Amino acid sequence: MTLRRATEVLEAGTWPVADAVATVTLPFDDRHRRRVRLVDDGGDAFLLDLDDATRMADGDGLRLDSGGIVHVRAADEDVLDIRCDDPRDTVRMAWHIGNRHLPTQVLDDGVLRIRADHVIAEMLVRLGAEVEARVASFDPEPGAYDEGGGHGHSHDQGHGHDH
Questions:
Q1: 45-55 and 61-64 strand pairing
Q2: How many helices (H) and strands (E) in the chain?
Q3: Kind of pairing, strands 61-64 and 4-10?
Q4: DSSP state string for 7-18
Q5: Among candidate residues 4, 137, 23, the one with its CA nearest the CA of residue 71
Q6: How large is the angle between the packed helices 118-126 and 87-99, nearest 10 degrees?
Q7: Measured distance CA(114)–CA(92) in Å, rounded
Q8: Calpha distance 159→44 (Å, rounded)
């Protein structure tokens, strides 16, 4: 049996979810890839074989060369949700997080979400934020140098980013 190949990332909202033939649930660190063997949630292997390393977001699809699409899901992981009473304080927290080059998700209610890190949590609490440890999906904002809203090439500026 030939290994299925996924050769294209389809951005969330641009493909019919009903066309999904499988799902693959991946943590953030495993959603920036070019070529890797993956196993879908049903236990079937496939090869991710892209031209360039691409950041995959929750809801994206991976087009299989044999037909069909594998639906990408963000896995639950240890995260910190950061809340402030005042929007100015939220901006201050975002500045401190960004100054440390930490991937950050901005939730609909203005809450900031980062990966769990007890040192950062203590710093944010000292600065006045409410920090809640949770287990939830993590789908951070694409970096300013990512093309196509996070669906493209990563920059190579040597800033020590974790992609």
A1: unpaired
A2: 2, 10
A3: antiparallel
A4: EEEE-TTSS-GG
A5: 23
A6: 140
A7: 15
A8: 37
Describe the chain by its helix, strand, coil percentages, rounded to 5. 20, 40, 40
Express each pLDDT in 65-79 by its tens digit: 999 999 999 999 999
Measured over the CA atoms of residue 47, residue 21, residue 53 and residue 30, the dihedral's sign is negative
**What is the rounded CA–CA span in Å between residue 23 and residue 131?**
32
Question: SS3 for 95?
Answer: helix
Please report where in the chains the tokens 């389809």 appear, as a residue. 10
**Residues 65, 72: contact at Cβ < 8 Å?**
no
Buried b / exposed e along 103-136 (16+ C-beta atoms within 10 A): bbbeeeeeebbbbeeeebbebbeeeebebeeeeb
The enclosing H or E element of 87 equals helix 87-99
Residue 66 DSSP symbol = T
What pLDDT band is residue 113 in, cutting at 50, 70 and 90? very high
Q: What's the pLDDT band for 149 if we cut at 50, 70, 90?
A: very low
The first and second tokens of residue 16, run together, are 């019919």
